[in-house]
Design brief:
Elements: E1 6-14, E2 24-31, H1 34-42, H2 45-53, E3 62-68, E4 77-84, E5 104-112, E6 117-124
Antiparallel strand pairs: 1-2, 3-5, 4-6, 5-6
């Protein structure tokens, strides 16, 4: 098995012009192994993104939920929802609350303990 395999890769790319002031690149990568992410960033692949879009910050998180339907790869839209993880006496059995949306074909929840927040990505085939 290749250590640089991507489990999920989804991009939103906006080009300068067409009501956009600058080029924007908003990727979502979910890796099978961290070695794949390291290879992507430091072996020249990320350099292509820097060349096209300039220096980019990379938000890192840990997946806690990945639910993808068979037709997930037909998705064209994503809803990104941010949630705080509040200060509490214990985190055992913490509930990552998400909303089930009509016509969704996938849901991925990623948390970041550095920021104490989690993000839910809900994917749709149509709007």
């Amino acid at each position: 098995m290749s250590l640089c395999r991507i489990f999920l890769h989804w991009n939103l790319i906006l080009e300068q012009g067409n009501d956009n002031l600058t080029n924007s690149y908003c990727p979502l990568y979910i890796w099978h192994h961290t070695n794949g992410m390291n290879k992507f960033i430091f072996d020249g692949y990320f350099d292509n993104i820097i060349d096209s879009f300039g220096w980019q910050n990379i938000n890192i998180g840990i997946t806690t939920k990945i639910e993808l339907e068979d037709n997930f790869f037909l998705s064209k839209y994503v809803l990104e929802e941010h949630h705080a993880i509040p200060v509490q006496a214990q985190l055992k059995n913490f509930n990552f609350q998400t909303t089930k949306h009509q016509d969704q074909v996938g849901n991925v929840v990623i948390y970041n303990p550095d920021k104490w927040q989690y993000t839910s990505y809900t994917f749709f085939k149509k709007n």
